[in-house]
């Protein structure tokens, strides 16, 4: 009979040890899981913003795809660079076609976006009727201060 009691006590100790290990493992994984979910949300939001900005540019007429044309369409708030064959506008908000606004700073720490347009030319700087559009959304991870970005690109052609 003594042997059974000792055996039961040992089994209880082992069971408590296993439950404690499982509890500690779950507690250790919870912060990592929350961080991964937050990062996934940030990448999803940034991807949606970049895709929306790119589609907004693609709806413009070829001749409207200029630095001032993007500002007039609400796709950018400031001109960063404006050369003859390349320009870049910066945005932190993006109006949606059906109403509402995507605000990068509300969802992404130090979030901002750029739309860069490169007019493709010949070797003699003669435009060939093609523009490459690159949309970049950048933000900083608050905990680590690391920068992340999502980037989309496309080329549009003049129909004239």
> Low-confidence stretches at least 5 residues in length (pLDDT < 50)?
none
Count helical runs. Answer: 3
Domain count, please report it.
1
Along the chain, the helix and strand elements come as HHEEEEHEEE
Radius of gyration: 27 Å
Question: Strand order, biggest sheet?
Answer: 1-2-5-6-7
Mean pLDDT: 89
SS-based class = alpha+beta
Percent in strands: 25-35%
What is the β-strand count? 7
Helix content: 40-55%
Q: Main β-sheet, in a few words?
A: 5 strands, antiparallel
What is the CA-CA span between the terminal residues?
98 Å
Shape: elongated
Structure description:
With 160 residues, the protein is an alpha+beta fold. Helices cover 42% and strands 32% of the residues. It has helices at residues 2-58, 67-72, 104-107; strands at residues 78-82, 86-91, 93-95, 101-103, 112-121, 127-140, 147-157. The strands form two sheets. The chain has a five-stranded antiparallel sheet with strand order 1-2-5-6-7. Strand 6 (127-140) and strand 7 (147-157) form a beta hairpin. The radius of gyration is 27 Å and the shape is elongated.
Question: What brief labels describe this structure?
Answer:
five-stranded antiparallel beta sheet, 160 residues, single chain, alpha+beta, elongated, two-stranded antiparallel sheet, 7 strands
């Amino acid at each position: 009979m003594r042997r059974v009691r000792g055996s039961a006590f040992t089994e209880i100790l082992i069971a408590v040890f296993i439950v404690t290990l499982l509890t500690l493992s779950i507690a250790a994984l919870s912060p990592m899981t929350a961080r991964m979910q937050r990062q996934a949300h940030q990448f999803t939001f940034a991807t949606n913003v970049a895709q929306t900005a790119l589609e907004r540019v693609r709806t413009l007429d070829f001749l409207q795809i200029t630095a001032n044309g993007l500002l007039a369409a609400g796709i950018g708030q400031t001109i960063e660079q404006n050369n003859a064959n390349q320009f870049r506008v910066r945005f932190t908000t993006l109006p949606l076609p059906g109403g509402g606004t995507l605000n990068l700073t509300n969802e992404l720490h130090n979030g901002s976006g750029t739309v860069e347009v490169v007019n493709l030319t010949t070797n003699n700087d003669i435009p060939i009727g093609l523009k490459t559009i690159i949309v970049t959304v950048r933000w900083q991870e608050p905990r680590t201060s690391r920068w992340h970005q999502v980037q989309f690109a496309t080329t549009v052609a003049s129909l004239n």
